[in-house]
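Late entry, D-mannose complex.
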Amino acid sequence: MSVRNLMAEGMRWFGPTDSVTLSEIRQTGATEVFSSLHDVPYGEAWTSEAIVARRDEIAHSGLRWSVVESVPVHESIKTRTGDFETHLANYRLTLQRLGAAGVTVVIYNFMPGMDWVRTDLHHRLPDGAEALLYDPVKIAAFDLLALGRPGAERDFTPAQQAAARAYWSAQPASARDAFIAQTLDLFPGVRLGLTLDGLRTRLAAYAGIEAARLREHLRLFLEAVVPTAEAAGVRLAVHPDDPPFSVFGLPRVVSTEADLAEIVRMVPSPANGLCYCTGSLGARSDNDLPGIVRRLGERINAVHLRSVQHEAGGVFFEANHLEGSMDMPAVVRALLEVQATRLKTKRADWQLTLRPDHGHMMLDDFKRPAPACPGYSLIGRLRGLAELRGVQVGLSSVLAASA
Ligand code: DNO
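Prediction complete; structure with ligand written out below:
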């Protein structure tokens, strides 16, 4: 393997309102941008004009919009209710227009009701940086005491419930309100203005939709859009659930290796692929991260690299990219080997594009305007990208020497 066969490096950019600019992204050494048209409401078709304008704006900064993160899947498609056929038709239109504009990888997720969930957005680390953290006790407090979801007690142990009550009663009303607002507002790149009642309505839409049925809805979604993606030269990449287990009683179907293997089997096409996200998948210790790459690498269309540190009681936080509970070099090596195999078989899409997923708030991040979305600081992600670059350059040189 030659050292030239590095994965391309990208950074997520939330568009013109992002406090991180494209010229700053360029100085991180990234060449690719993961971006979305966040101002288009979920479910509407993206216009060719808006796509081309965004593509050209990014190109103007010497970067390339190679990955869309994300084209969101409207809730009606996940529940197969209401005007889901219209939303499917809109999705197909968007894929056709992206393909025509040369933007060829599209990330989406199939998380019901919510996007990702964290409980602490400013977890202070010993070195003074801040990380994102997930604490099941705080989720229990939200679920039992703020949302008051019927049956929620079944999802938590008596000890978790007691800890949740103790936590909640120790919080002043203002801290409870802030915690509720933060939990409702964690949709990337948009402010949906969801309320507790709005969330209750969203959850109610999944009454009677257990995992098997949601999986069937995912299959029907793929059958409806993959042929269009294929014809448009677009490759889809499903993002894993974050966290990869049920929250608020919702079903989950993109959490484990078995889930991913099932998804790629549903519609056997290179256009039906995966966004391999080590942070999301790694929040379950039973996911074998390098093994997933070795077994499913052929279908990986986008890569997010980040490491979580597991703590007692199901708590996890986002560690530095080369620290935490996972073996990042083993994952990077497996990805480089997947690329080498694809290259040998002359696959046009052999080259993978990675981005550092999230970063700490550190150094001058504290002096800058807040990131567009928690986890998307500039300096913290720059550190992550630089460390990942070191690992992949070092490993690819060693692999080339031993080839
Ligand atoms: C969080 C992200 C997710 C991801 C979407 C993909 O930082 O990894 O919000 O972009 O779930 O659709």
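The chain has a mean pLDDT of 96. Will revisit in the morning.
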